Amino acid sequence: MPVITPFRRPPQTAGDDPDTPGAPGPAPLRALTALGARLTHGRAWRSRHPRAAVVVRRVTTALSAILVCGALLLPNTPAALEPNRFARIPVEAVVAAVLLLCLPRVPRLVAAALFGTVLGALTVLNLLDMGFTEYLGRNFNLVLDWGLLDDAQSFVADSMGGATAAWAAVGAVVLAVSLLVLMALASVRLGELLAAHRERAARGALLTATVWMTCASLGLQTFGVPVATTSASRAMEAQAHRVVDTLRDEAAFAKEAKADRFGATPGAELVPDLRGKDMVFTFIESYGRSAVEDPVMAPGVDRTLDASTEALTKAGFHARSGWLTSATYGGSSWLGHSTFLSGLWVDNQQRYRTVTAGDRLTLTKAFRKTGDWDTVGIMPGVQKAWPEADWHGLDKVYDAFDMGYRGPKFSWSTMPDQYALEAFQRLEHGRKRDRPLLAEVILTSSHQPWAPIPRMVGWDEVGDGSVYDGIEAAGVRAPDIITDSARSKEEYGKSIQYSVTSLTQWLERYGTDDTVLVFLGDHQPLARVSGNKASRDVPVSIVARDPKVLDAIDGWNWTEGLRPAKDAPVWRMSSFRDRFLTAYGSTPHPSR
To answer: What class, spelled out in words, does domain 259-537+547-583 have in CATH?
Structure first.
């Protein structure tokens, strides 16, 4: 009778596994084996070095507690980032501790990891809020502002070099990911610690909850702030409200943009009192009220404005000036430009996309609609395709590459304002033409970081811009002032003086009896320069030789000269379009 021998699987060799030669068994088994080996090695190390293991464990626990509590108490504005903010009891920590104590192990691990990840995301948003508050005077918008991060990287590249921008971007991504991972690990660590000492942890949570409720009910404070706080919950609630408000605003603004007081006005009934005039609408980058009134910057800027007023008066020009409240602050200049031109309050990127995608009558487009003006744009800051040109109502746009500049960049600014204005004169304003000119000019030399700053040269010496090589090389470097508030203020003030001088000297030199100049700032400089409580006001001026041009705005009660008085009228920037069109004879025909 044959003997039946049980089947025995031959021992597996290192080369038997098709997934990874040299490793025993299939991939899942290898992973578990490796994890077990590491855990065994860790236990062995702790057995050999018990004191060191205790120190490492306690330090890890302390760091985890500091990380989680610090994130729960972290404010979202730079001004609030003070030590007293971290001497409080966050209710979220108490609630999370109670919840974790009630859960079995696996749900506890999941809940702790989820809590930590959400807390890490909130920390990232708080840091973004700080940055946006510092530079743009507002909080980060979770729906609209991701695209601005790319603009921020481009700004850093233009100001401080491509390598710095690349490392800054990598550092930001690493920081964000690290916060998510570390916060999750720290929360898991603290959750396991609570479970390991459940009774003491429960008593501690109960005591802390009692202290929190007592402090909250009595309004107790320490170092000037309430002891009991719900700051993290309120921050999450604010982010949620911001998202909801943004989505609601999008629909409401789309309806508002379609209702235009002058939308159906025939071209023949638009600005009839300006027929035959060469109109120049000029935006000076970051030219804000602080430049005219801040104790550090105002003396130099005011002297420039007064001297320019006197020089223009000798040349036969007169000016009136007032204040406009910009829709933006510290940056996003295109929001200020579109607000001024459209008569709508364009204070975020979604509104900008909505209004520029429509057929709203802009101030510049009104002149093109008459058929009596050639319309051009001088845009030295535009370095890529700019489809908004048609919305602006511009037949021809000269960007950074169209003006023949062969000199150096001045940080973000592609060319000095004096060169841009001389190119405008050469390419358009100085040409013989059959009809008057409407020009929209953007001057960029006063764009942050205000280093290096150009200086005035003889107008006949401007040439192709090569004259600026030595000026740029001898100027202040951006890294030397970008974190120094005092020096930033000084250099910002100098940049405004340069821009105003360039513009007014151009008018003095090339202006005619039919030239009308309207110029203004697009927004205030960032808070590091203008201050945390600065207004959003910017100066605006109208300059002309023809007295009828200024007589038409007598009812505005603006200040004579280029420097608006402190008590001069302050209007929302969005109101200027309709006031201007009305003052110069336009007849309203609302669109529906």
So the answer is: alpha beta
